[in-house]
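User: Show me a protein chain along with its predicted structure.
Assistant: Here is one chain, sequence first, then structure tokens.
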Amino acid sequence: MSSNPVREFFRRHRATNSGEMPSQSILENDLEERAGIRWDCEMDPNDWEPRICAEEPIRLGEIPTRFVDGCHTGQAVTWLRNPTHGWPVAVFLAEVGGVAMELKGRTLVRRFFGLERVVSFVVDAFPWDEVESLAAALSNLRDFPLRLLPARRPDADDVNLFDYEVMRSQAEVRTIREMTTWESVALNADRDAPTLLDGPLASRDIMALQHRPGLLIAVIKTHNKNYLHDQGWRTLLELPAAKRTPFFKIDPPVKRKGAGVSVATWYLRLSDTDAPNAGIVRVEVPWAQFIDRWPTKELQIGFVGRLSRWLIDARCRQRSYARMPISLEPIVRAEESLKSLFTPFNLLRNRFLRHAGLIGSAQ
């Protein structure tokens, strides 16, 4: 029987089926941040392998009873011309907020929420006195108060300010940053309860994280930085469902100490998928809490295993939910709870454009 070179090639290099998955960010290599990574906390970095999440009873204070999430909906709704150069400046309208859900028995109860409507654009493209007058007028709209979030031009000198996307993205990022502020407010509404936060600790106000009595756990669904060494990547890509990598430590660069905390972290595959980099979340716990509550490696391994098992059991199972493979059911419920309070965006857009005189007429 003649050989089949096509099959031989794919068999030789261990081809595995890969299904259709959403595109993910290309990972950044932050050399300063990588310099503060310790991969030897649980085992020798060269010996990394998938770790079993043991079926052990959870202990008091080790699992979250509060769940904090933020929501953001918005888009650019109009654009302006810079008076001196003619740069196109996008005006981004959004509604943002934060919510905290508390587990009571088997029921999730909304304990805190905050939301606001905001508008953002690159303000240093316009005379400051005009921007101040606009901000005051927007906040005083009786039926539709808006807060102006000033966005700034990019710092890089080689950015083309005639590129509409440059100005639009600056405004969008500013509104997303406001969402994280609301998440921090929701987080600080109760500092004693063990809390799970959707998103990395590095993006939070460090004062909200220090001297916190209750355990803080962060789960990161979107990965945009490279935190692993070569053997770490081999372990991650071969990680079976319901297994984790060894835990390791990330120290923020010294110059960023005011914008981050040292964390114990590990990757966990929540669900089996057809893509090697899908279905994976990264878990963070503040390093100070980690070593204070579990001072020995044996205790740390036990805690990481128990928490990982709880996260696997808490994963979202709603197949209709787009991010089901990397989501936790309590966070999905928190998002649904907050979004139910948002105004439909088409209504927001039309009311804003009416006040701006771009459609109809405002009273």
